[in-house]
Amino acid sequence: MLIPVILCVMIVLFTILYFTPGDPARIALGQEVTDEAITAFRSARGLDDPFVVQLGRYIYRAVFKADLGYSYVMKSPVSYELSSRIPMTAKLAFCAVLFSTLVGIPLGIICAIRQYSILDSVVTLVTLLGVSMPTFWTGLLLILAFSVHLGWFSSMGFGTLNEMVLPILTLSGSSIAIIARITRSSMLEVIKSDYIRTARAKGQRESVVIFRHALPNAMIPILTIISIQFGTLLGGSIITEAIFSISGVGRLMLEAISMRDYPIIQGGVLFISLAFCLINLAADILYAFVDPRIHVK
Amino acid sequence: MPDLTNNAPLLDIRDLAVQFNTDSGVVHAVNGLNLSIHRGKSLGLVGETGAGKTTTALALLRLIQSPPGEIKSGSMFFDGTDVLKMTETELRSMRGGRIAMIFQDPMTSLNPIMTIEEQIVEMISLHSGLRGNEVTTRAREMMTLVGIRPERGRDYPHQFSGGMRQRVGIAIALACEPALLIADEPTTALDVTIQAQVVDLIRNLQKVVNTSLLLITHDLGIVAEICDDVAIMYAGRLVEYAPLRPLYKRPMHPYTQGLFNAVPSLDSEPGGRLTVIQGLMPDPTDLPQGCGFSPRCPAAQDICRSVACGMKEYEPGHFVDCYFPNHAWEV
Q1: Is any Cβ of chain A less than 8 angstroms from the Cβ of B309?
Q2: pLDDT digits over A35-61, tens only?
Q3: B138: distance to nearest CA of chain A, Å?
C-alpha cells in the first residue's frame, strides 16, 4: 500500500506544480536579469524538457538514487534542507499529539461517564469551538492573550519550554477536540455493552470497570484518530510554524511555495505523506496489541 | 422487620416497582412484585419477553442503569439486609460474592480482550480472600468443574463456542460460592444439546455448592428439570406462585394455563396448530387498569378491568392473582 500511495503523491504533486503559473527562474534570479541567465537557469535544471521527461527523471532519481534534487533558491540539496528542518517539525507535532492525547482521552472519558451532565455539555461546546477555530486564529488569539497582554509565554521559536507552550496549544486545539469526541462516543458504546454489566455484577470497583474493562475495548477508534491526527499535525504545522517563526518543514515549504522552489515543495510533501503512511502503519500494528482478535499478518 | 432466624427466606422482595423514564413515556417494567427464595431452593421465574424478569434481577443487584431506570418503591431483603439501603461498598461485596449472575447471551457477556482465566481470576480475587497462586489454582479448579481444560485459560472468548462461553460465565458466577445464583435465560442462546449439558451443570453445581437459584426463563421444560418453586410473571408482576408439582399439575391463572397450552407436546397432532394467547402484552408505558392480563383474558369480568385481584392462596402454597382461577380454556 505504501509504495503506490507515495508514487501517486509524487505524480499528482509534480503535475500540479508543473501547471502552476509563475516561472521559478525569474523568481529565483530576481527582476534585473538577462534573458541569457534565465535560459541557462532553465536548461541547467531541465525545465525546458517535455512534461513526461521531467516527471520520469524526477521519479527515477527519487526512487533509485534517493536524490530529491537541489533547491532552486538555496542551491543546496533538498535532502539536506529537509533533514535539518524535520527534527523541529517532528518535535512540534509529537508534543502536540502527546498533549492532545493526554488531555483529549480523559476529557472524553469524563463526558462518557457523566453523559448529559453540565460538564458533558460544556466540554461538547468547547470541543466544537476547538474543531471549528482555524489554527491561525487560535494562534493569534493565544499570542494576544498570553504574550502581549499577560506576557507569560514567548511567541517566537520552539526551543525552550517557555517557547513551546503556545505553539503546542495552538496546534493541538482541534486534535484535543477530535480525540475527546471520539473517546466519548467510543466509551459510551462500550459502557453499554454486556461485558461491562458482567464486570459490575462481579462487584468490581467502578474505576476498575472503566479503566480495565471499558477503556481498552474503546481503544481501537481512539488509536485510529490519534494516528490520523499525528499525520495531520505534521502537515498542519505549516501555519503554526509560520505564526511562531519556527524553522521547521512547514515554514521551509511556505517559503518554497512563494519562491516556486519546486524541488523543496516536492520533498516536503513527500516527507509529510511518507510520515502519514508510516504512522498509520504503526497504528495498524498497535491494534493487534490492543485487541487479541486482530492478528498481525 | 424481617425474621432473622434460619427459616427466614434468603431473599425476600416486597412490593418492588421499577420504572424507566424514557422520552416516549414512563415504562413500568416491574409493578409491585413480591418474591421470596429459601436457602438452597431454586425458583423458576417464568414469563414472556418484556415481562420484567431481567429487570427484577438487575434491580436486585442494583445494576439498573440510572438514568433512565429507577427503583420506585419496595424493599429487597437479602439475608436480612435491605439491598436498597446498602452502601456502595456493601453492594460491591454482595455482587459476585453473595449473589452472582449468569447472563443471557454468552457471546457478548464476556470481555473480548481479556483471557478466560483473567476473567475468572478477577472474580476470585475480588471476593475469596485468596492470594497469588491460590487464586490461579482456584480458577483452574473452576474451569475443570465446568468442563473446560485449564490450559485453555490463556485463550480469549472469541476462541470459544457459545456453549463453552456459557460455561465460562457459569465458572465466573460460581467461583466464590454465592448464596444466591441468578441464571438469566442461561440456555436461550444455545443449541438444544448444549442446553441439556448446561442445565445438568447448573443443577449439579447447585447441589455441590448449595446455593439458592433464581432461574429466569421462558422455557417451562427447564424449570421442570431444575426448580422447586415456580413464579409466573406477567407485565411486571407475579400472577401465579406455587411449588413445581401443583403448578404443573393444575395451573390456575388463565395466563399460566395459556402458557401451558402454547407448549407443543409429543401427543399433539402433526401439522396441528398450537393454542396461542390472543393479543399482545400490554404497552408498559400504558398499563391497563385492574388486572394486567384482563384485555387478553377469556374469563375477564368487569371487576377484573377495574380492580386487580391481588395474590390469593387458593391451595396451601399455591398463590394466584385472579378472581376466577381454574377457568377452563376452550382448547
Answers
A1: no
A2: 888 888 888 777 888 888 888 888 888
A3: 16
Spatial distance between the Cα atoms of A186 and A190, rounded to a whole number of angstroms: 6
Cα B36 to Cα B3, B75, B76, B221: the distances in Å are 13, 12, 9, 22
B121 touches chain A (CB under 8 A): no
Q: Which residues 2-41 of B are in CB contact (within 8 Å) with A?
A: none
Cβ burial of B66 (10 Å; 0-12, 13-18, 19+) is exposed
The C-alpha cell that represents B154 in the structure block: 490463556
What pLDDT score does B331 carry?
Answer: 39
pTM for the structure as a whole = 0.82
pLDDT per residue as tens digits for the range B50-104: 888 889 999 999 988 877 888 888 889 998 888 888 888 999 989 988 999 999 8
Across the interface, whether the CB atoms of A291 and B105 are under 8 A apart is answered no
β partners of residue B181: B100, B213
Q: What gap in Å lies between CA A138 and CA A174, rounded to an integer?
A: 10
pLDDT band at B330 (very low <50, low <70, confident <90, very high): very low
Position A179 pLDDT exceeds 50: yes
Does B103 contact A201 at a Cβ distance shorter than 8 Å? Answer: yes
CA distance A206 to chain B (A): 10
d(CA A209, CA A207): 5
The DSSP code sequence of A179-246 is HHHHHHHHHHHHHTSHHHHHHHHTT--HHHIIIIIIHHHHHHHHHHHHHHHHHHHHHHHHHHHHHTT-
Residues of A in contact with B114 (CB under 8 A): 213
Top residue of A114, A198, A212 to mutate, by most chain B CBs within 10 Å, is A198
Domains, chain A, ranges and CATH? Answer: 2-67 (no CATH), 79-290 (1.10.3720.10)
Which candidate from A197, A203, A291 shows the least CB-CB separation from B126? A203
Alpha-carbon distance B61 to B2, whole Å? 19
Whether A291 has its CB under 8 Å from any CB of chain B: the answer is: yes
CB contact under 8 A, B103 and A290: no
| Single-letter residue type at B80 | G
Contact A262, A24 (CB under 8 A): yes
ipTM for the complex shown = 0.85
Distance in angstroms (rounded) separating the CA atoms of residues B135 and B120: 9
What's the rounded Cα separation, in Å, for the pair A42 and B98? 86
